[in-house]
Amino acid sequence: MNRIKAGVKQMGLPRLIIIVFLLVLVVTAVFQQQNMGTLASDILVRFGMNMVFALAMVPAIMSGTGMNFGLPVGLLCGILAGLISIEIGFKGWMGIFMAIVISIPFGVVAGYLYGKLLNAVKGSEMMVGTYVGYAIVSLMCIGWLIMPFKDPTMVWPIGGSGSGLRSTITLTDNYDAILNNFLSFKLFGITIPTGLILFALFACFLMWLFSRSKIGVGMKAVGDNPRFAVASGISVDKSRTIGTVLSTVIGAVGIIFYAQSFGFYQLYNAPLNMAIAPVAAVLLGGATAKSCKISHVILGTFLYQALLTIALPVANQLLPEGGLSEVIRLIVSNGIILYALSQTGGSDNG
Asked: How many helices (H) and strands (E) does the chain have?
């Protein structure tokens, strides 16, 4: 009994309830005779395509800036890089490779400037990050209208160059699902997106290696105890800036990774709230505002995406009339986010 209590305490009662709720959904889906192979395949795809987003939270939390609600800064760098690669004419593997390569310097510059801002507002990083994310998305809404792209698949069909970009840029002729299909295979009716999962896990592995490097250990010291870090000769501002740059770059790469799986880039207001889900995922996995591990990223992303994937078809069959299934989906997804965000405890990370 004591071991059970200790296990529940370590996992956290709310997280245990969510896991039990997920199991109930799975059992319900089986009784409803849902296509479990399709559901499992969808979960794996959503798990893989969202994991890099969640990974972007690790360096930000490690360095002491807290949850990166300014993630749209990185997302817009990645989207811009992806559009440039399409404009130049890169396709297939070269297309996604060049999009990632182009996104990195964009992410470094934007992350550096964003990091300088966060250093100036210590203690209010998450609030300021939220404002910065919303502000940069609004600014880029103007940018998408005036940038001189010429590719006919991206610009509005009337007006030509400079007439504005479409709200949705399809990747059908470029690198749509190229990672999803790489080495994919079926097992018991479940499609395993091998390339997608391997890339996400490789990104996690690189972050794990970095966290054990000299710079990574210094960043973690800053996040844990800034005063001790200063006494040890570690520059707090420099470590926080490096963490913000890394988070921004990972976000930039993550949106390219996400878009190739999704099948298109979404512009204008689409990136506005995309920071909420990865924040919720890592918190659901066990992270806090001052500590985040790779295991939190993997577990949290899986739980979050599995819940959303299974909840909708189950609700559709239980309540087919009146669009109530969509209401239930919103309640489930926002309920998860509310629980996860409540775990930050309002702590001061400055």
From this structure: 15, 4
